[in-house]
Write a structure and sequence with these properties.
Distance between the termini: 50 Å
Largest sheet: 6 strands, mixed
CATH class of the largest domain: Alpha Beta
Strand content: 15-25%
Helix content: 25-40%
Strand order of the largest sheet: 3-13-14-15-17-16
Radius of gyration: 31 Å
Number of domains: 3
Structural class: alpha/beta
Number of helices: 15
Length: 537
C-alpha cells in the first residue's frame, strides 16, 4: 500500500505550493514564482506528478534556470522511456538541467567564435618561415629479409654499434672480448649482449654474449647499488660488466655500465614558435573524442581560447603526431564491435578532412603507429600512400617513418610511436602506465628504442638497426600508452602525449585510465612546456 499512498502525498505537496504561490503573487506582477506556478499547472495538466524532492529542487533553481524549458525536456524524456511513469523525480530533473547546460555552453562557444571572428586574428607563427630538416627516416631504406643470416646480421650490427657507444665512456676503457677475459683471473671487464636473466631474492644471474663467446654474470645483494641496476636490465641490451672471475665462465659483478646518454646541453631556436605534440587520435573508433579534437582545431584557428591560451595557439608552427592516426581494422579480436567506421580507407579520408582544417601555415608531421596501415614490425615506413592518400594530398603534411629524427629551427626531435614501451613496463619494477617517462628514460639509458626481442614488439631484421639511439635529441616524443606524462632525463625533454580516445574495453580491463584531450605544447625558444586541456574549454 505504500506505493499507492506516496504519490498522493507528493501531489498534495505540489498543490499546497501552488495555493501558496497564488496568495504570494496576488499583489505583484509575474515573477519567477509566478512562472513556476504556471509550470506546475502544466505538470498536472500533462497528467504527471512531482515527487517532494523534485518540487524542492525546482524551488531551489527557479531563479537560476528556465524551468519551463527544463520541464519540456522532462516531458520529452518521459514519453520515450521504456517503462511509462507519471512521477517526476529529482534525478530526472537534474539530468535535464545538465543536458540544457551543455547545449547552452555550445551556444556560448558559437557566440564567442562570432565575436572573435570579427576581430583581426593574425597569429605570429604565420609570419615565421618553416624550418624542417629530416635527419633520419627509415621509409626508403627498409628491406624484407627474414632469413637466419638476416637476423644474425641484425644482431651483429646492434652489438657493434652499441659497443662503440659504450666504448666512448672513459670507465669502459680496458674491456676485453669475453673469450680473453675468461682466460684470466682476478678483475676483468667485458662487453656483451644480455641473452638470459634470472632474478631471485638471493641473487641475479644473467648471461651475456659477444660475437664469439658467452659468460655468466652473478650479482649479489651485498652490493645494493649494482643489484638495483641489475634488476632494471632488459634482455638483448648491451652492457659492460666489471668484476672478479669465478669458476668456469662466471664473473661476479662489481659494476654494471650502460651505454646511457651523457648529460646533454639542449639546443634552442632563435624563433619564438611552438610545437604541439600529440598522438593516438584513433579516427574510426566509437571512442574517438571528435568533439574535443574539433575544439583543438578551433583553438589552432583562434576561434576559442583567451589570454595565455590564445597566445600559445598563435605561436604554434608545428603539430607532431606520434602515430595511430586511425583505429585501423583487424587490429585485435572483435575490434569491429568498437568501430564507428569499419573501412580503413574511410577512416583515413575522415582523418584527412580533420587535418585539412589545421591552418596552412602550420606544418604537420606524422609517423605511423601499430594501428596505422603499415607493416607491424619495427622500423616502420611512413603510412602507406595507397591507404592514406587523402593525407598525402594535404599540402602541409609531412609523412615519415617510425622512428624518425627531425630538426625544427635547430632543435632536434626523436619521434617514436612507443609500442616497445609495453615491454619495458612489463619488465621493470615500479614502472607503470602512469609514469611512462621512466620507461622512456630507460630506453635512453640502454640507447635502444626496442631492446627486447620476441616479446610484444615485433622487430624486423634490417641490415642496420634503426632502433639504436645514436643521436641525442633535445626532445624525445612517444605515444601508444594513451597517458600523458612528461619529465626531463639528462637534459632531454621526454613527452608521452596522451590521446584522443576515451577508455576502451581493453584499457578498462587493464586498469588504464587514458588522458584524452590533453595537449602538451613546447616553445622551441625556451623548451618550456605548456599544457592545454580541451576538456575544460
Amino acid at each position: 500500500m505504500k506505493n499507492l499512498t506516496e504519490p498522493s502525498v507528493w501531489n498534495i505537496s505540489a498543490k499546497f505550493y501552488l495555493w501558496r504561490l497564488k496568495l504570494e503573487n496576488l499583489s505583484r506582477t509575474e515573477s519567477s514564482g509566478e512562472k513556476l506556478r504556471k509550470c506546475l499547472e502544466k505538470v498536472f495538466s500533462e497528467g504527471y506528478q512531482l515527487q517532494a524532492e523534485a518540487l524542492s529542487f525546482l524551488k531551489l533553481i527557479e531563479d537560476k534556470v528556465d524551468v519551463e524549458k527544463i520541464l519540456d525536456k522532462v516531458f520529452e524524456k518521459l514519453k520515450t522511456q521504456p517503462q511509462p511513469t507519471i512521477f517526476i523525480s529529482k534525478g530526472l530533473i537534474e539530468e535535464c538541467v545538465n543536458e540544457l547546460e551543455e547545449e547552452n555552453r555550445r551556444i556560448v562557444e558559437k557566440v564567442r567564435y562570432l565575436e572573435v571572428s570579427k576581430e583581426v586574428y593574425h597569429p605570429p607563427a604565420k609570419d615565421v618561415e618553416a624550418k624542417i630538416e629530416v635527419l633520419k627516416d627509415p621509409s626508403k631504406s627498409i628491406s624484407s629479409g627474414e632469413s637466419l643470416s638476416d637476423f644474425l646480421s641484425y644482431f651483429r650490427d646492434r652489438f657493434k654499434r652499441l659497443t662503440k657507444i659504450l666504448s666512448e665512456r672513459l670507465d669502459v676503457k680496458g674491456s676485453l672480448p669475453i673469450e680473453d677475459a675468461l682466460k684470466k683471473s682476478g678483475r676483468v671487464k667485458v662487453i656483451g649482449l644480455i641473452s638470459e636473466k634470472i632474478v631471485t631474492s638471493r641473487r641475479i644471474v644473467f648471461r651475456i654474449e659477444d660475437l664469439e663467446k658467452t659468460a655468466t654474470i652473478i650479482v649479489q645483494p651485498e652490493n645494493p647499488e649494482v643489484f638495483q641496476v641489475a634488476t632494471e636490465l632488459l634482455l638483448d641490451q648491451v652492457v659492460c660488466v666489471s668484476g672478479f672471475r669465478g669458476g668456469g665462465d662466471t664473473i661476479f659483478a662489481e659494476e654494471i655500465l650502460l651505454p646511457d646518454i651523457p648529460y646533454h646541453k639542449p639546443r634552442y631556436s632563435w624563433e619564438d614558435v611552438n610545437v604541439v605534440f600529440t598522438s593516438d587520435i584513433h579516427v574510426g573508433s566509437i571512442a574517438f573524442e571528435e568533439k574535443l579534437f574539433r575544439r583543438f582545431l578551433d583553438w589552432l584557428k583562434g576561434r576559442i581560447g583567451e589570454g595565455k591560451s590564445r597566445e600559445i595557439a598563435g605561436k604554434v608552427k608545428y603539430v607532431v603526431v606520434a602515430g595511430d592516426v586511425v583505429d585501423g581494422v583487424g587490429q585485435y579480436p572483435r575490434q569491429e564491435d568498437e568501430l564507428e567506421i569499419k573501412d580503413v580507407y574511410k577512416q583515413y579520408k575522415v582523418a584527412a578532412k580533420l587535418f585539412e582544417e589545421i591552418p596552412d601555415y602550420i606544418e604537420v608531421i606524422i609517423i605511423p603507429g601499430n594501428h596505422d596501415a603499415v607493416r607491424r614490425t619495427l622500423p616502420q615506413p611512413a603510412i602507406l600512400k595507397n591507404f592514406a592518400e587523402p593525407l598525402y594530398d594535404v599540402p602541409n603534411i609531412l609523412m615519415l617513418g617510425n622512428p624518425s629524427y627531425i630538426r625544427l629551427h635547430g632543435v632536434e626531435l626523436l619521434l617514436h610511436h612507443g609500442r616497445s614501451l609495453e615491454d619495458v613496463l612489463s619488465s621493470l619494477p615500479n614502472v607503470n602506465h602512469q609514469n611512462v617517462t621512466k620507461a622512456m628514460s630507460q630506453l635512453l639509458k640502454v640507447r635502444h628504442l626496442a631492446p627486447v626481442y620476441g616479446h610484444k614488439t615485433p622487430i624486423a631484421p634490417e641490415p642496420i638497426d634503426w632502433m639504436v639511439v645514436d643521436r641525442i635529441p633535445d626532445i624525445y616524443h612517444t605515444g601508444h600508452i594513451h597517458v600523458f606524462d612528461h619529465s626531463t632525463y639528462r637534459g632531454v625533454l621526454l613527452i608521452n602525449s596522451g590521446c584522443w580516445q576515451r577508455q576502451t574495453s581493453y584499457q578498462k580491463k587493464m586498469g588504464v585510465t587514458p588522458t584524452y584531450g590533453v595537449t602538451p605544447i613546447v616553445n622551441l625558444k625556451t623548451l618550456n612546456l605548456s599544457i592545454v586541456d580541451f576538456r575544460s574549454f
